[in-house]
Design brief:
Layout (H helix, E strand, L loop, with lengths): L10 E2 L5 E2 L1 H41 L3
Antiparallel strand pairs: 1-2
Length: 64
């Protein structure tokens, strides 16, 4: 990810040992990105199966 902050900038100055708001947002964004990739992969798989089932159905009924 672009715009990485140096490690010393990732510590929350208000809460000792706490996470900075920037680091928290980066972590949340990374989790959302991973979830979006999983959802996309699932949708692509489902669409491929749907298309295959449709093609199979058309091929089976071509002879009629």
């Amino acid at each position: 990810m672009r715009g990485h902050l140096p490690p010393h900038a990732l510590v929350d100055p208000v809460t000792p040992g706490g996470e900075s708001p920037e680091r928290h947002l980066e972590r949340r964004l990374a989790l959302l990105h991973e979830e979006a990739e999983r959802v996309t992969a699932g949708l692509l798989t489902r669409e491929a199966r749907r298309q295959q089932a449709h093609t199979t159905c058309l091929q089976e009924h071509e002879g009629y």
